[in-house]
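Fold this complex.
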Amino acid sequence: MLQTEAIQARRGGFTRRKFIKGVVAAGATASVSGYLFRGSGVFAPMLTAQGAVERLITLNVNGQQRRVDVPKYETLAMTLRYQLGLTGTKLGCDRAECGACTVLLDGVTHYGCSILTHSVRGRAVATIEGLEQDGQLHPVQQAVMDEGGFQCAFCAPGFAMSMVGMLEKNPNPTREEAAVLLSGNLCRCGDYDKILNTAMRAAELSRSRA
Amino acid sequence: MAVMRDMIPPFELYQPTEVEDAVRLMRQHGDRGWVLAGGLDTFDWFKDRIKRPEAVIDLAAVDAIRGISAGEDGGLRIGAMTSLTDVAESADVMDRYPLLAEAAGLVATPQIRNQGTLGGNIAQDTRCWYYRSGWPCYRAGGNVCYAATSRAMNREHCIMGASRCVAVNPSDTAPALVALDAEMVVASTSGERTYPAADFFIGPDIDIERMTVLKPGDLLTRIDLPAAWPNARWYFEKIRDRKSWDFSLMSVASSMRVEAGMIQDVRIVVNSVAPYPVRLGAVESAIRGRAPSEETGQMAGEIAVEGARTLRHNDYKVALMRNLVKRSIRDAA
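Structure:
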């Protein structure tokens, strides 16, 4: 796993190598703040309980290592949008009920609103911003241009990521299979027919490039 | 009822990599701790600030309870943290327990199946919206069932097994596992216990605040499928409003062995009709030795709904259950 390692918990008798830790330097960070704020009382609740995770972590986003200070209760969609500035990932319902926040984790589609950022350490996060490579649009992006697949397009980044995940899983889907693979995304404009045209065009472009 | 529905309130986060550390942390934090698997049941509670644990124990890194392997007795063992996609698309499960593969593949959406786990699908809490919205009902420790009052919206609620609470078990994989005689393996600091699937789910008459035998400190680690049911006839159907996302209005699962045109052995389980998956023992004994025909199905459907008690908006469930039970016998293949 990239930038993650299990280390010995400092106290409490938990056995060796039993907890995941964010970055190698995090222990030092915590001890420095412990030194600076010792005795103040105010910062005591901020210190990490034994065996718990550190806030400072490194994420692999679109192939880049991004160091970021993440609250333990923050979801991936929040971190992407408000800490890393990757606002292509949309928050629609924030309840795993619309798909606008769809991102890929190790190539598999997930709802960014419903997973803790701390749970994705060591996994490759892919968002809509990472699809274009060296000035060349991803087949899915090109297909959206070709087919004019979306009306208001708030759902488009989520749909696009679901299409990328679809192509990883089934590079040659039928229209029905595409509909099933994209059934975790909602379009409130009701543009599904054009979205499926886009998906089929994306599969076609993807095969011709391969 | 003013409820914040945005940011999750702070908690301490633990990410153990071993079962023994996970159960120790769970014991240490008791009912102020929360076990996080896929998170699809969890984050609604947190965002609504209805459940506010002080410690969350994330199982994502506990590799020992993820994956599918062969059991000693020729069955299959599925780690509780195995994703529903992995269950639905596993060659072993599709080949030998297609009933479970079908049920897992009909849960919610692709994204939810990629992240949601088999253990989480089984152990999930009820979706009764009075309860999920934070109303102080019986299940939440109060003394009213808001879903059973005269003006309540209770189209999705139960027609049997009620005891003060009328919520239903929403799991799709639960009835399939009961119909396959699966066993649930539960770890805690005092060791490992095994429950037959049918005993794993409990009704409000046993404990109104839980859906399963799991108490704080108990961790569902594995689901064992016995060798008894591979290659049997089976049937699964899930009825819901939309073809994606929705929880079932009702689901039925059956396993059946037929010899010389007669039913030798059978399990029929219906979910979302009661607070737990209902195994239809009376139906099973009545149809043993008969042909899996339209007539047998018809008779089974009538027996199945005996004693059903409807609420204001859910009498359609009686007819639905009658038909689903009939199909689960007539159309099992």
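The first helix of chain A runs from residue 26 to 36.
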